[in-house]
Amino acid sequence: MQIVVIGAGVIGLSVATELARRGARVTVVDQHVPGAGTSSTSYAWVNANKKEPQAYYDLNLAGMEAHRRLAEATGGGWLNTGGHLEVATDPAHAAELEQRTARLTGHGYAVEQVTAERARQLVPDLLVPLDAGPIVYFPSEAHCYPQLYLAHLLTAAEDLGVQVVSGAQVKAFDFDAGRPVLRLADGTALGCDRVVSCVGRWTGELLAQAEIPLAMETFTRPGDATVGYLAVTSPVPVALSGLLTTSRLNVRPDGAGRLQLQALDLDQTADPRAVPATDSPLAEELLDRLAGVLRHSRAATVSELRVGQRALPSDGLTVAGPVPSRPWLYVVATHSGVTLAPLLGDLVAAEVYDGVVQDLLAEFRPDRLLASGVRHAPAQPPRRPGEQ
């Protein structure tokens, strides 16, 4: 079977390697270079923490397990399994965290409420206010270094004979003797048996070329659900091995002493067309918050400030499945791309190549976003601490 995968991010390359492992002849095409899209601007938190409804929670939980299995089997240095500590310092966050902890405990999720003393053992440089609300530890959560994961995938893909073509923009879908043909911008025609679309936030644009109106959120204004700030600091002597979430700042290691910062309440001005400078008031605000969360971070500077753009189906949930009117076309799009990448690689390959329907994907077929006249409430930005 000859298969073209469109998109060389963490999802596309995961799918491509698993298809090739099963025996498919795979070509990956990307309009840019591997990892240039959402994969390169992700907080990369591997979790099922706030994932609802139940089917979405189950899918993300399986994604966490798939990441860990793959990392253990390959010695993957892309996965940091240092866990996640969450500290509530305002009443709304405290109430929401208590409710969420109870709900996750009921699911059997790995979660425990800890004392301030235990929190400082987990994060030695943590500054915990005396009036801090619940402090909760999620030991099974992790974060990913997407570029290292992509390096692993590219090596595996090359070993399996996958052809990766960069700078190749798909301009049209066509047919020749009943087989789909991709027309590229440079005039190249790629014939195949199946096509798998893994283009993230460009999904709606790509599928429109095949007259398939899949409902995806697109950037329309600063601070909408598709965008958010991410900052990377200079190296600092801070003892932090995993993720840390507080009421005002999310922090995780970014390698070599650098930290990655995220503050969801500041995202209201995020605009990919106007990224603030690394010495802007926004950057200074992030650094001030960091200094209030972790000791020894006062000397940090912001070395990178990005506006991440999310791949977001219109109802906020994953899309994975064939398009009913184009059975040769399989579509994958999800906001939880990093968490789900190894799992979706396996599940999608099983459906596309083996023809084995995967129960975990039953609730996430593209049909729900293709039906004429069906409306969905607009996807919402990630919930800030304390939001229900």
UniProtKB/TrEMBL annotation:
<dbReference type="InterPro" id="IPR006076">
    <property type="entry name" value="FAD-dep_OxRdtase"/>
</dbReference>
<feature type="domain" description="FAD dependent oxidoreductase">
    <location>
        <begin position="3"/>
        <end position="350"/>
    </location>
</feature>
<keyword id="KW-0560">Oxidoreductase</keyword>
<dbReference type="GO" id="GO:0016491">
    <property type="term" value="F:oxidoreductase activity"/>
</dbReference>
<protein>
    <submittedName>
        <fullName>NAD(P)/FAD-dependent oxidoreductase</fullName>
        <ecNumber>1.-.-.-</ecNumber>
    </submittedName>
</protein>
<dbReference type="Pfam" id="PF01266">
    <property type="entry name" value="DAO"/>
</dbReference>
<dbReference type="InterPro" id="IPR036188">
    <property type="entry name" value="FAD/NAD-bd_sf"/>
</dbReference>
